[in-house]
Design a protein that fits this description.
There is one protein chain. By secondary structure, the protein is mostly helical. The protein has a domain at 41-92. 68% of the residues lie in helices and 0% in strands. The chain is built from 5 helices and no strands. Helix 4 (60-68) runs antiparallel to helix 5. The longest helix is centred in the C-terminal third of the chain and has 19 residues, at 73-91. It is elongated.
Length: 92
């Protein structure tokens, strides 16, 4: 499929195709890991813990609202579960 586009480019811009220089992919200077690389396990664990810590802060608000609304423990659990579901749908 790419060869079709290359043939069309040669046809449309004949001078451009001969002067084109093939370059390999270079990594930008500030990029630590490329798309195909996996960070070390310690970095992944720390990133996961950071994500859990930040997401748990957002669960405090439904708990406060449920307590102020005098919800039963079962209803409070349902309310927190639904807020987690709404958060996941909203961020996807």
């Amino acid at each position: 499929m790419l060869s079709q586009y290359w043939a069309r480019a040669k046809k449309l811009w004949p001078g451009w195709a001969e002067n084109r220089v093939e370059r390999g992919r270079t990594r930008p200077p500030g990029l630590l890991y490329s798309v195909d690389e996996t960070p070390p396990r310690a970095v992944l664990i720390m990133a996961a813990l950071q994500h859990v810590a930040l997401m748990s802060n957002s669960l405090i608000y439904p708990i406060i609202l449920g307590r102020e609304a005098h919800l039963s423990p079962d209803r409070l659990l349902d309310f927190v579960s639904l807020s987690m579901l709404a958060s996941s749908v909203g961020t996807s």
